[in-house]
Amino acid sequence: METLRIDKETRLLVLTGAGVSAESGIPTFRGGNGLWENHPVEKVASPEGFREDPSLVWRFYSQRRAGAAPCKPNPGHLAMAEWERKLGDRFLLATQNVDGLHRVAGSQRLVELHGNLFTTRCSRCEREPFEDRLAYPEGTVPLCGQCGGKLRPHIVWFGEALDERDLLRVGYFLDRKDTRLVFMAVGTSGAVWPAAGFVDGARELGGETWLVNADPADNAHRFHHFVQGRSGEVLPALVTID
Ligand code: APR
Question: Does residue 153's CB lie within 6 angstroms of at least one atom of ligand 1?
Fold first, then answer.
């Protein structure tokens, strides 16, 4: 297997997707038929879906909470937490995953681009999003204790914009001039923007780009290096840090 050496003049940006959490037993998005209880996921995980049937959306997320709650970080998560410990501010991890496993594994320099499954916010008032691990009973739509509005999962739904602050944080890291850039995408099909475009940004900045994926994702050709394999097996041995 090709290996990646990170010296003192290099910074590393990692983007992870469902293929990393798959090693912890959490199903990927496009592995199946894209349906959940015969509903297209894009429909349920959307503002329109929430307006139409908020209790259906809460059933979907309550099931995902219940499914993800017992899952533990895998060797891939732990390897990336180790890279951060060795690289410090020369490392940044942007994840599309909402299961929180990177944080459990010890990652702190972390941007949760699509939100977090175990965080809830009010769909009406500006109260701060808050930790909420509850899998709500069937038919429940929890209401805000402050304004009475419907509570919603703190997830970026299809058709919603990512948090500008998250994108700025990734952009600043990409644009740094003090070190050489390496960008690595792990376990993502490259189907969803803007995360799917990070590789182009990295290449435009002269960065070296790596893809680690179980099978050749649609955007594999856009990377300088492609390491095919399971993330939990590949990552621990892939990177050596000076
Ligand atoms: N190791 C490495 N790669 C894997 C593994 C594994 N064990 N299992 C699956 N993969 C790869 C698949 O080959 C696929 O290319 O991980 C990728 C997962 O792709 P998706 O299911 O599309 O997940 P992701 O790319 O994270 O989806 C992005 O889409 O549905 C939205 O918001 C949701 O964050 C999600 C976004």
Answer: no
**What topology does CATH give the domain 35-70+118-155?**
SIR2/SIRT2 'Small Domain' (3.30.1600)
- Tell the residue nearest (CA) to atom 7 of ligand 1: 230
Query: Which parts of 67-131 are beta strand (E)?
Result: 91-95, 110-112, 115-122, 130-131
- In the block, which residue shows the tokens 């914009």? 161
User: 178 CA distance to ligand 1 centroid (A)?
Assistant: 32
DSSP state of 102: H
Mean pLDDT by groups of 10 residues along the chain of 242 residues: 95 97 91 79 93 96 96 98 98 98 98 98 97 95 98 97 98 97 96 93 98 90 96 98 96
As a whole number of angstroms, the distance between CA 211 and CA 229 comes to 10
Q: Which mutation among 30, 227, 228 tests ligand 1's pocket best, with the greatest number of atoms within 8 A of CB?
A: 30
Helices (H), 148-195: 164-175
Q: Has this prediction a pTM greater than 0.90? A: yes
CATH superfamily of this structure's domain 4-25+72-114+162-241: TPP-binding domain (3.40.50.1220)
Whole-number pLDDT of residue 157: 97
Which pLDDT does position 118 carry in this prediction? 98
Chain region(s) in the chain for CATH 3.30.1600.10: 35-70+118-155
